[in-house]
Amino acid sequence: MTKVIKNGTVCTADRTWKADVLIEGETIKQIGENLTGDEYIDAEGAYVIPGGIDPHTHLEMPFMGTTAAETFESGTWAAAAGGTTMLVDFCLPGEDGSIKNAINEWHRKSAPQICADIGYHMAITGWNEQIHAEMKDAVDMGVNSFKHFMAYKGALMVEDDEMFASFQRCKELGALPMVHAENGDIVDILQKKYLAEGITGPEGHAYSRPAEVEGEAANRAITIADAAGTPLYIVHVSCEQAHEAIRRARQKGMRIYGEPLIQFLTLDESEYFKGDWMHSARRVMSPPFRDKSHQASLWAGLQSGSLQVVATDHAAFTSEQKLMGKDNFCLIPNGSNGLEERLAVLWTEGVETGRLTPNEFVAATSSNVAKILNIYPKKGAIVEGADADIVVWDPKISKTISQANHHSVLDYNVFEGFEVTAQSRYTLSRGEVIWAWGQNSQPQPGRGRFVPRPAFSSASKALSKWKELNSPRTIKRDPMNIPAGI
Ligand code: DUC
Ligand code: ZN
Ligand code: ZN
Ligand code: ZN
């Protein structure tokens, strides 16, 4: 059974050209002119791009005394509708502290529900022999990245010694360390200070998490990664201070990757000061939205390549859940939506405005993610042999984003009223059409698959040797085999 995506303009991270794409079963068989097959998918007037990969979601995650409302089923449907064919979700250890059990628990929850493909990152929320041992099991189970929370003191936060130990373990295993960079000690002090001053509303959330808190943590994590000799991926970069730390580290030869969110690029801190508690609470996430100067920094990072990917940190809490913090902003569950909106908003605010080229858009939403997470070119590419995760991206379908027409279970949408100028005409996951504009039928829950991500190999023995011999440094920065150009 073959399908041909006909008459479109193929747009990848590195070039744009007119071609048909022939799909056989689940994979791309051929790219060329005048291809024929059993079925045809019309891409006239549209771009044919690799399916979006969202590297950062929290579906059904237990967090801050509740559980994120977006299910694996609703989340992956929303993703498909928005042109995203794979997401990478964060596993948190349960009460027994076991990483292995947490991964199995995520499989148990996600497998019957997902209609698009999924991968996991594993959170490291403490340090002991069991965690040290089970990180190897996680890598063997296809989870090659470990996230460290530098915030959420008393809950998820890790100390520097724990982070250093875990980063060293990542290096041994060929895994990628990640951090949520916010200084949890300072946040804790500022939260108490503002509460004591009688500031209990969502504006206190913004006051207690200033950009300096994120910048300090980003600098510290980068330094610890350098001491451990590992690359580092910094999730949800929201501000110039963290971006500046990343730029400086990259310029010194460190492999540091930065992930701004679509929310941070387009929504600013004025959302917390509108005098409408619920409006602001719905936008409480960590880090918080920043002022427009930080947005300009993030766009510049995407343009220059110092920031590589755009994610969502999709952590959906309903209005009722947000009310848990009605008397105390510290208790508002942190998180906002974006899984369905990421591509359309980035296209409208990035490509339509001339900030990004269509190729840079593809790199930031798909190809760079796949490279950094070690699933390229199975995912994130339109090449022969790759999974046929393809979006027919129509730059002529405009839409007003609204809770009324989204696929999330949320009773609001932080992008409510945004006019977007492009949409997925068709979303294909491993060759199957899982979304067709105008039809709005739900893809089959359980058809999605877990995508194991292998450990990275060391990129260059020779380079490490050279560094040892020629540099006064004692630290060996052992580059990992992440494809070049990011
Ligand atoms: N930040 C959020 O806003 N939500 C989930 C976790 C996080 O770090
Ligand atoms: Zn060890
Ligand atoms: Zn985080
Ligand atoms: Zn997150």
From TrEMBL:
GO molecular function, one term: dihydropyrimidinase activity
EC number: 3.5.2.2
Coiled coil: none
A GO CC annotation given for this chain: cytosol
Post-translational modification: Carbamylation allows a single lysine to coordinate two divalent metal cations.
Residues with N6-carboxylysine modification: K147
Keywords attached to this entry: Hydrolase, Metal-binding, Zinc
Domain of life: Bacteria
One Pfam family cited in the UniProt record for this chain: Amidohydro_1
GO BP field: nucleobase-containing small molecule metabolic process; pyrimidine-containing compound metabolic process
Record keyword Zinc present: yes
EC top class, as a word: hydrolase
Cofactor(s) required for function per UniProt: Zn(2+)
Domain Amidohydrolase-related: 47-412
Quaternary organization: Homotetramer.
Family indicated by similarity: Belongs to the metallo-dependent hydrolases superfamily. Hydantoinase/dihydropyrimidinase family.
Record function comment: Catalyzes the hydrolysis of dihydropyrimidines and of the structurally related DL-5-mono-substituted hydantoins, to produce N-carbamoyl-D-amino acids.
Protein name: D-hydantoinase/dihydropyrimidinase
